Amino acid sequence: MRTQTGTAILLEDYRPSDYQIDKVDLAFSLDAQETLVTSILSMRRAEGVAEGAPLVLHGDELELVSIAINDTALSEDGYELSADGISINKLPANDVFTLKIVTRINPTANKKLMGLYRTSGNFCTQCEAEGFRRITYYLDRPDILSVFTVRIEGDSKTVPLLLSNGNCTDKGALENGRHFAVWHDPHPKPAYLFALFAGDLGVLKDRFKTRSGRDVTLEIYVEHGKEPRAAYAMDSLIRSMKWDEEVYGCEYDLDIFMIVAVSDFNMGAMENKGLNVFNDKYVLADPETATDQDYANIEAIIAHEYFHNWTGNRITCRDWFQLCLKEGLTVYRDHSFSADMRSAPVKRIAEVRGLRAHQFPEDAGPLAHPVRPRRYSEINNFYTSTVYEKGSEVVGMFKTIVGEEGYKRALDLYFERHDGDAATIEDFIKCFEDATGADLKQFSLWYDQAGTPNLAIETNYDEAHKRFTVNIAQSLKSSVVTGDVEPMHIPVRFGLVGPQGNDLAYSGVTGADVTGDVIHVREPKHSIHFEGVEQEPVISLLRGFSAPVTIIPERADSELAFLARHDNDEFARWEALSSLAMRQLRQATHDVESGKAVKSSPELTTILYEILSDETLEPAYRALCLSLPSEADIAREIGSDINPDAIYTARSQILDDIAKECLATLQATYAKLNPAKPFVPDATSAGIRSLRNTILGLIVRATGDVELAAKHFSNADNMTDRADALSVLALQAPDAEETALALETFRAGYADNPIVMDKWFAIQAMIPGGGALERVEQLSKSDSFSWENPNRVRALIGSFSVGNPTGFNRADGVGYRFLCDATARLDDINPQVAARLITAMRSWRNLEKKRSDFALEALKSLLSKEKLSRDVRDILERTLA
Ligand code: ARG
Ligand code: ZN
């Protein structure tokens, strides 16, 4: 790798802090432009550290008002200020002392949305990963745990609500129309879990009794008048609390749990102790304004943040390299929760689609990094799908390897052994080893080796000896792994599917460790012999997607078709169907590029027809099957020399063909499907809507009946149907009068609802073809667009660059230039979101030559910009390395 400018932080450089902070007393005197923060730190020099060792505190864009040790002001030669903080070199001989620091900050000017900032006139904080240093000078690292007491003072009228972590211990009125509140959090915590909210919001309240009898007050704060729209979030919270007690034995540990919803937020939500702060799109929902996907997201994210109370807060991370310790595990927990609340196979398919859409390209490109990275220059750029989603897959593999019971014992041990710790991945792995006796040394490579492993598979049936042989070879190609790649431990769930569709038995196996239905691949190559297999089987591999790998089985279309019909694992059935479809789509793309006619195979159409008509299958599952791989999926499979226009044309033609072939059944099914009225957001009803709306898209493809979509739109009594119909109109008939009318009706109906308007922006950003850029540019200049609101930026620019392959990758390269200009503009406001935006170009090398040349030119010109943030520079340098 090329050396990067700026200083990289290395895992191997970790050392414990010379100083601890036993206790923090914070006092905020809130003011829109000039907030005063007084911090009194009870400091302790760590054992073995030399007297007078300099104390270096982090700080970022702070104005120092005063600093004193043991009540004596420090003279100017007692400390040194820099852009990153303060170094104090005149320290008392005592190993304990108090440090009192006063800083002045400007929340209104804080557009980075890290530290203390303003949102809709309220005050709010975001401190993970390194935002606390934008509030006061501090040892802002996750292994410094301290007990916080926080006094907040503000104007009684404009900020009637004064919230922080823990319990409220005092409050009252002050002179000059001001008031105060004091919050005490008894649980020692790192600064990244600190939160403050002050403002004027309404509240939805409920209660929860923990299984040991603790009465917990639950409060969700939202804009006045929107309290009823927090009901689903509250319901999700209560179900999460109960689930975590039942499944993990984790009980809540304070008397109050609060959630605050804000409209300006860099990420999804934040697990601050006792006071979660949420992007309001993951709190607010009602049938009129939220889609089924919104409901599912709310349920998942409420659970995720709540689950962090144990996996993240009670046990936190030693350093930011260990981020996956809390995120991978907590994602795994929220996935399991959603699977329990909804349909497990449908949930698993959605997870795998997401993993392939986001994590696989990351792992295959220049931004690849191990689940536990070893270096970073900007930690915010490592809140990635590799850390989160692949991190979750790794936890799932632990469970596959040690079994349900072993997993439970290991987690119990983890909670018991590390409660109150700032822990590491090694600690976590050790719990699995100690609780189960398993040797996980090789398995732990999953944390260290970037890239998606590949399995090449060959099979052979020896009729005479009733022996079935499976040859498996693993390999790992990665753009960032240098030096030797070591073979990994890959758990492959499998079945030998007989001609009748049932799994066949075998009498013995050699060549690999096979336990139950799992083959443990550990060597570069295995030749596995199953003895006593009475009939020739078709092997079903990677059932439930038991490992995040790619797999190339040498098999005929007929075998895929067989598995798509008969595999008893629903995930594997879907997978076989997708593989079959993918082959077709690749062939069709090739045909388009070489000017040949595109043909869809009768076999694929027949299977889709069977699935469509099979009422024993869940509607949600049928909808997933009918959607076929996306343009991005196809691009990823093709891998190089990508022409997004050819992919689009090929995919459209195949879908058109299928829709025409199945039209009568599509229409009959569409007419027959009746989602419950009034609207219920449960998984079953959502599945019915999903199937019905997928079918709508196919019918409009086959018939061009725009009227039908327009009717679907105007008859809708919920946002799922309305937004799906609007997508069908906009994406399939962008120039139709009905589309213009629907877009305008939608805009007029929801102009005052930003969360819904984000959908309006996103749908238009995804209209395919050459005209997309002008449309997006136009929208970015409209009054309702704002560069300061992350949700709006993501809805328009993010949807365009990630969700519109033909529009964004226009052959003349203007899409790339637009994104780079947008990134430059946003970088001056919010570097974190800007850096995220430009990752849309990480796969530029895979494009066909003309496009990749344009992409390179645009990226280079962005890199040459004078004042780039560390965030954007880091992404650019790695993308171009
Ligand atoms: N811990 C949060 C979550 O998992 C994510 C916060 C990340 N924020 C950031 N600025 N990097 O939900
Ligand atoms: Zn998280």
Automatic annotation (TrEMBL):
Cofactor dependence: Zn(2+)
MF terms (GO), sorted A to Z: alanyl aminopeptidase activity
Protein keywords: Aminopeptidase, Hydrolase, Metal-binding, Metalloprotease, Protease, Zinc
Ranges where the Peptidase M1 membrane alanine aminopeptidase domain occurs: 232-443
Domain Aminopeptidase N-like N-terminal: 93-193
Superkingdom of origin: Bacteria
Enzyme Commission number, as recorded: 3.4.11.2
The keyword Protease is assigned to this record: yes
Reaction(s) this enzyme catalyzes, per UniProt: Release of an N-terminal amino acid, Xaa-|-Yaa- from a peptide, amide or arylamide. Xaa is preferably Ala, but may be most amino acids including Pro (slow action). When a terminal hydrophobic residue is followed by a prolyl residue, the two may be released as an intact Xaa-Pro dipeptide
Xref: CDD domains: M1_APN (cd09600)
Domain Peptidase M1 alanyl aminopeptidase Ig-like fold: 451-551
Coiled-coil residues: none
Domain Peptidase M1 alanyl aminopeptidase C-terminal: 557-881
InterPro entries the record matches: Aminopeptidase_N-like_N (IPR045357), Aminopeptidase_N-like_N_sf (IPR042097), PepN_Ig-like_sf (IPR038438), Peptidase_M1 (IPR001930), Peptidase_M1_dom (IPR014782), Peptidase_M1_pepN (IPR012779), Peptidase_M1_pepN_C (IPR024601), Peptidase_M1_pepN_C_sf (IPR037144)
Family the entry assigns: Belongs to the peptidase M1 family.
Protein name stated in the entry: Aminopeptidase N
Lineage, top ranks: Bacteria, Pseudomonadati, Pseudomonadota, Alphaproteobacteria, Hyphomicrobiales
Gene name linked to the record: pepN
